[in-house]
Design a protein that fits this description.
mainly beta, about 120 residues, globular, about 0% helix, four-stranded antiparallel β-sheet, about 45% strand
Length: about 120
């Protein structure tokens, strides 16, 4: 069965950087749309970055210009490079995968059927 495992979370000061990784098993990144979501404590989960099978990214306004999504199809690994982190970026970050090669709205969580357990990012 499909498994997504995130890593790379931690605590960082404002202005710092972190890189999240998501490794998939029983799933091929090269053929579908994958994304990063986050859920701040007490708030709804939100989509922040998605990338389709061709590597075309989509970003939420809140992270545009600061976060970069990328993937290594050969390693079945998804990345999220987060720069200039702000306290409002504090959240649990989740990797998600769909069956679709591309999506009209890659940041809509309803499009994703596979989810990782999440990794916590805390910015102070």
């Amino acid at each position: 069965h499909v498994q997504l495992v995130e890593s790379g979370g931690g605590s960082v000061q404002a202005g710092g950087s972190l890189t999240l990784s998501c490794v998939a098993s029983a799933y091929t990144f090269g053929s579908a749309c994958v994304a990063w979501f986050r859920r701040p404590s007490g708030k709804e989960r939100e989509g922040i970055a998605a990338i389709d099978h061709e590597g075309v990214p989509t970003y939420a306004d809140s992270v545009e210009g600061r976060f970069t999504i990328s993937k290594d199809d050969a390693k079945n690994t998804l990345y999220l490079q987060m720069d200039n982190l702000k306290p409002e970026d504090t959240a649990k970050y989740y990797c998600a995968a769909s069956y679709a090669a591309s999506l009209d709205n890659g940041l809509d969580q309803r499009e994703y059927g596979f989810w990782g357990q999440g990794t916590q990012v805390t910015v102070s």
